[in-house]
Amino acid sequence: MGVKKKKETQVAALTICHQDIETLRSFADVEGKNLASLLLSCVQLTDGLSQIQCIKQIVPLLVKVNKNGLCDPTIQSSLDIIAGIYLSLSLKNPLKKVLASSLNGLPEFFLTEAIHSFTSRLQKELNTTDLYSYRKVIDNISSCMENFNLGTASINNLLKNVLHFLQKSLIEILEENRKFAGNHIVQTRLMNDLLVGIRVSMVLVQKVQGFQGNLWKASGSPIWQTMCGLLNIFTKFLSDDDLLQTIHSTSGLAIILFIKTMFHPSEKIPDLVSSLLLRSVDCTSIPEWFLSSCRSLCCADISESALLFLCQGTLAMLDWQDGSMGQSGEALLLDTAHVLFTLNSQIKESTLEMFLSRILASWTNSAIHVLKSSSPSLKDNLNGNSSIVGRLLEYVYTHWEHPLDALRHQTKIIFKNLLEMHQLTMEGAELVTDPFFLELTEGLLQLEWHIKGKYICLSCLVECIGIERILAVDKTIPSQILEVMGDQSLVPYASDLLETMFKNHNSHLKSRTVDGIWIDKWHEIWVSPLLLILCEGNLDQKSYVIDYYLPKLLNYSPESLRYMVKILQTSIDAKTGQEQSFPSLGYCNSRGALGALMACLRIARAHGHLQSATDTWENLVSSARIKQGLIHQHCQVRLDTLGLLCESNRSTEIVSTEEMQWIQFFITYNLNSQSPGVRQQICSLLKKLFCRIQESSQVLYKLEQSKSKHEPKNELTKQHPSVSLQQYKNFMTSICNSLFEALFPGSSYSTRFSALTILVAIAEVFPVLEGKFLIIFGEIIFFLSRHMLFFYILLYLKFQFCCLFFRFIWEVLFLAYNSYLYIIKFASKGQKAKKLFCSHLPNCCYFKIVPNLFFKF
């Protein structure tokens, strides 16, 4: 496997016009130490990364200049060129952010001159009349307001011009978009420019200090007139069906933001917005500027989508924290909910349904903020027994199995928030005995377990009121959930719910009990049903429980492994017919308690919950039990036991002597597996073991080379590294001998196939050098001659087909030997020889492995 080359960062180099270059040359000093020289050397570089380093030197150089440098034309011209460089860079160019970050540290006595330079350059940008340059100017306006002091100051100085440019650009881009009706590529780009323009207008209103006063609110003010024009544009965008829905959505946000910024007095804003949402605007009581800017919003025939996005803007742009809008804000919150419920019954388009679900979730968030400092009347309207909460629950029940994942996620947020809303209205009442929570719990538990939404809502309910109340209703809930884990579509939901439940129960019991007795109760409720499924459940149940639930349980409570091992060991030892915690393993076709034990240990070791292999064999499970698993009649028990020996969360963990002995024992009895799938898994697991040997041998070699001979013991191994390396050598030699011996004439197809496949795996893991099959463990090297391997393969071919294909076999021998020499001499042409060699072999499955193995060695 090749090493993935790290992708180099590409930064486009900055360039300036010829006139600016000549200016820098005229001011550059002979020594090359002033600002003009630095900029000149920077623009002459062709590598953007190198230019970044130059840019970072600008401010340190200016710090060294005293205040007298303000009158220096070199500084003034250089600052002007720096402003031009900043505005010429694209928004995504890292140079732009680096330059802004550097200039934020500009000495105070240079700020006035620098702001003047940036203001002057930005003014020229705003005067452009090229429609296809508008996007670049809009991006520059955006970047100036993004953590850039000089840019923000320049925007403040040019606020009137910036607003006018945004108004002009939005109008002209919209007109251009209409001209290209039918040209979707151009229209997409233009509408994206419109979207960016709207967002920049909103950021401008939110960030620029010029809007904090009241002078601009005079009706004759140019800024006020431009703001009214922009508000009118957003209103048109909201109802223009030819535009993208994202533009509609953003326009709804912008309209409410501009109303919030422009309308006076602010105390009447909730009433105005409420009348817009309810389509009941009194045109005689609103200002003329609002009527002229938002006339279409004051009509009763406003579209459903426009109303939906106005609700979104209301919830996102108004201040709901701390009850700052008072009772009129509370009334607006309730009116918004009723409008959303009405739209829910009218909207059929899937994208609008998605928007509606998000807006409803946003409404519940706003309701939580308001409830934290609300009046008693609002709490009555938003408690669990209110009509609004009832309709929210109805929405959740209707959409919790919606085909869209994102919409189902929103129903979870809504349900979780309405539980918190009810909590805020309880005023100190006990959660567990609250009628709303009791009724909700019983209602959910009565539903069928095949309903996916039930799991999500129960999970939220457990987080809110705890697991004790649910277990009080029915203690068999964990067993019921585990029973449905045979259905693959329900497994993720069931395992997530179980995880939430057992974590909550663990925390609850731990906080209520001083001694450690509580853990027995916890094991009885959450671990015992799991073990029952592993012993008695059907194949799908066992597989999904092992893959999804068992790792989560062990990750949260690793100490539960000893409880599992104790119970399962007792069950294995119990005789058939005796009274026991779990049915004994008495059927050859059943995995039983032994299979459950090996599965638990395998998962625990793979996730790092076993301290060491030696500790496992000495304290958890005996050697006899391991051997019993390695030759069990059920194939999955054998695979789990082998996986326990081969898999580890640490790729460099030392393979113990016991493990090597058991692997040899396994290979002796399991090469003749009749299932192709089992053979494949055996080879895969053994390859993991070989990788551990290969990587841990490197660690052992480094230990040996680092003078560890003088240390009696090491943390990684209880014996000297050279001893472990010698054991590795002996083990691999024994394994290879066993595999070659399995290729004797007359051996079964499955035995030959397994042996050859494992040999291929060995050849892939360990390096091959200079014609020898080498396995390198530092200085300890053992090898098997390539000629010996060649002899084994051809000997097998000779005896297998000598009766019918004697002459053909010897032709293969001659051709193979010459191909072998050909490879040694011309390594680059090895593939050609390989194809030639393969073409003369019989068309049998295991013969496809032989050439692969041959060419590995």
TrEMBL record:
Pfam families: TPR_Trm732 (PF25150). GO terms for biological process: tRNA methylation. SUPFAM superfamilies: ARM repeat. It comes from the Eukaryota. Residues 522-764 form the tRNA (32-2'-O)-methyltransferase regulator THADA-like TPR repeats region domain. GO terms for cellular component: cytosol. PANTHER family: THADA/DEATH RECEPTOR INTERACTING PROTEIN, THYROID ADENOMA-ASSOCIATED PROTEIN. This is THADA armadillo repeat containing. The gene is THADA.
